[in-house]
Amino acid sequence: MRYLTFGILILSFILFGCIKPQSQFEALSSPSPELLEKIEPYIQPSIDFAYNNEKNAFESGTELTAEEKEIAQKIGIKNVDKIRVVYLD
Questions:
Q1: 58 with 81: CB under 8 angstroms?
Q2: Other beta carbons within 10 Å of 65
Q3: pLDDT tens track for 3-47
Q4: Would you state the pLDDT for residue 75?
Q5: Cβ atoms of 52 and 25 closer than 8 Å
Q6: What pLDDT sits at residue 18?
Q7: What is the 3 state secondary structure string of the chain?
Q8: CA distance 83 to 66
Q9: Extents of the domains making up the chain
Q10: What average pLDDT score do residues 65-82 get?
């Protein structure tokens, strides 16, 4: 039984090792025409949605406290005054 399990494991490595899986970068850098056709109508509305949410957050969000700004600077954020916190339900 032990040899059967080991044999199946080796066979799996051989079979799946010969197939090059498509990396996430490759998949995203050259999407299929069918995929592009499906997502194209959503691209501009998505950009508009993100822009409006960013604008609303900057206008209505709360600034970081002094302690939060210090933490933000420690982790490498350069413009801590531009950060706003918005609580969502």
A1: no
A2: 10
A3: 555 556 565 655 555 555 566 677 667 778 888 888 889 889 999
A4: 94
A5: no
A6: 55
A7: CHHHHHHHHHHHHHHHHCCCCCCHHHHHHCCCHHHHHHHHHHHHHHHHHHHHHHHHHHHHCEECCHHHHHHHHHCCCCCHHHCEECCCC
A8: 12
A9: 2-61
A10: 93
